[in-house]
Amino acid sequence: MSETGSSNAKPLNYDQLNEFFEQQGILSSAAEVHGILTGMVASGASLKGEDWLTLLSDLIHEGQSFKPVVKEQLIEMAADVCASMRDPDLGFNLLLPNDHEALVERLGSMIGWVQSYLVGFGVNQTNLAGLSDDVREVIDDMVEIAKLDFAVDDDEEGERAYYEVVEYLRISAMLCFNELGQRAGTDCVTNKILH
Question: Name one GO cellular component term (predicted).
């Protein structure tokens, strides 16, 4: 559950991506970048051309243009989000630290993911009144989750609560995509050709 990818793609590795973004001077963590991309895709944002990369640079790189290697990685991540959102086997997962990391670190990353998801979602869907009750409820829940200050014990109950929230976020992101991303007919096209 801690790594993402569709069944026909190599899963993205949280630790490697985090290190990569850090080395490239990107201010956001891998979870935050993935959250923003997922929010953009789920809300029906177009990933054609370069506009989405410009928007992303405003959100995670102080408006500076990305180096080619970063751009390539972001395009790959966006393509992965698109493919996993469309996966009939519901293969979409949040990009979070591995289970061997301390629960407090995983919770922090999950909060970062959901906050970033809301940012990515909000840049494309500014009028929540026009959305279905289900999507509005999901977004309201995500706002509440994003505000939570988790103080949980690193025990079985804490782990179970963490997994329940992550699973809820996973299903919620797919619900938004099914209503908005699919309907927008964006085809989730990036400049990368999926094989």
Answer: cytosol
